[in-house]
Amino acid sequence: MNFAKERRGSERLIRASEALAGRYYTCPTCFAEVFLRRGHWRVAHFAHRSGQGKPGCENFHPSDALTYAWPSYGSSSATTSNQSIDSFVLSIELQPESTMRGQRLRAWELRLTVPKSEDPHGQVTINCGGGSKRTISLSKLALGAQTFGVDLDAEDFGALWVSPEVRAEYKAAVEDRIPGLDREQATLFASSTARLKPRIDRVSWGSSYYLVWHATHDVAVPRRLVAQPLASSVQWNCALITLPDDEDNDVETWIEEITAVTITPQRRVFGLLYPPPSGLDVLGRVTLPVGEPVVVGLRQTESEADSIVTLRATAGDASSEVSLEGPGRHLVLLGQDTGRAQIALRLNEAALPLLVPTSISHADVFPHVRFVIRKLSDRGCVEASLGTKECMALLDNVRSGQAELVECRIPSGVKGTIRRRASPEIVWSSVALGRDSDQATVAADPDELAQLNKTLRDHKSEIEVDFRAFGIFRALPERLADKAPTVISQIMRNRIRWLASSSASFIPLHRLSDSELIKFVSHLRVGPGLVAHHRAVVAELQRLSSGSGEK
Questions:
Q1: Most buried of 136, 222, 443, 502 (most Cβ within 10 A)?
Q2: What does the pLDDT look like over 84-117, one tens digit per residue?
Q3: Residue 401, class by beta-carbon neighbours within 10 Å (0-12 exposed, 13-18 middle, 19+ buried)?
Q4: Which domains occur in the chain, in start order?
């Protein structure tokens, strides 16, 4: 082992040639205690202390004496297994973030995993490409599969030589060669939290993958795919791509043409609904603002009506799970702790992308409907987001004629509505606002701004500027806003209470004043069967407001 971490102090990585004897060091992979070896006849290196090494650690190289702990070859106690032996696995491994040292793009390398052996006797020599090879003792492979770096330009990988004492089953497995990277087509690797990202032959919508291709192969990523480049290695390029959640014929054709990989049909759709993600790092982790409650959603198809899906969330030492049954949409609320622990999600046995809270201001993450309003007194312009108290006050100034709206910017794809209703009318007249665009935001054109200003200044109508979750501005006509106090009888209040309960609106009406009750009835949304009743109640309240009295 050439590197280790200092156990005390900065815990930085230190090279064996620069380490000092007598100090405490730990393995950077399994965190077990290691010590420095140095002498006249050996190169300085770190080694695990006796009993500290773990077979799963790639830096652990057991002593040759371990072979004596196994039963002798051919004896009755020799281990036998009818289990099938795994084949070689080609993967990529990303450079650790701690070693980037100011690099803008993360480096990566190609890795080959040699399968585990059930018998410790013998050796195999593996072709690593580029004229290099590696001889591995089966006493080490008996402890677990071993992984090492290989050449990117190698056409295939496999065993060059197998010693005679190796069993026939394992010999057949390692002599079965696997192809390397394809120069003519791109290669896809899984995006996961594991250190090794294995090559795959099937993808699904809404997931992320690492795409590797040769520099001579022209790859133009479609605009509907989110792509993050990694550092180039020799003449090979790599990028993390994310497929859209919904099926897309153009993307599917592109994937099949450049990778010859098929896309599996969608069985269920899972996604993060709130807060809006701030980005996706090169490890495929979703970054989101810290401290915000997280809302995730799952949509199952009719074919999964009888299946039960278990969603499990783990954040630090805390974990919880919930069972979701039946088709349709399911919403789950997750809470973030103050420790900014990343949230790991699993859907049954499938791992979902990690959610990593980051300290990013809401202004940089959340989209807003923004208004620029010019005050007529000093001709100064003020910008505010719909839904804030500042914006509500500015729109009131526009309605009173003290200001005018000069600009409106709407996030692409967000649709709003401008509604207007005169006092005697029941039905609203509406105009749509917003549209889809390739840009992040869409600016309202001069005609739409003129319509907004005209609607806001219509003092005789009730108006709404409605962008749903992005904010709503409402204003009543002046006649209702400045009316004299009205006395509503108990009979009329009982009628309004019946109308509200029939419309599934359960509000403590006995606490509302007469003016508040009139405002409530005017904003009440009723079903088609209650429109006539609602119209009669509104007409009766208007008659009361005008001073005609109740019948």
A1: 136
A2: 778 899 999 988 877 777 777 888 999 999 999 9
A3: exposed
A4: 3-60 (no CATH), 69-179 (no CATH), 187-263 (no CATH), 269-363 (2.60.40), 367-478 (no CATH), 483-545 (no CATH)
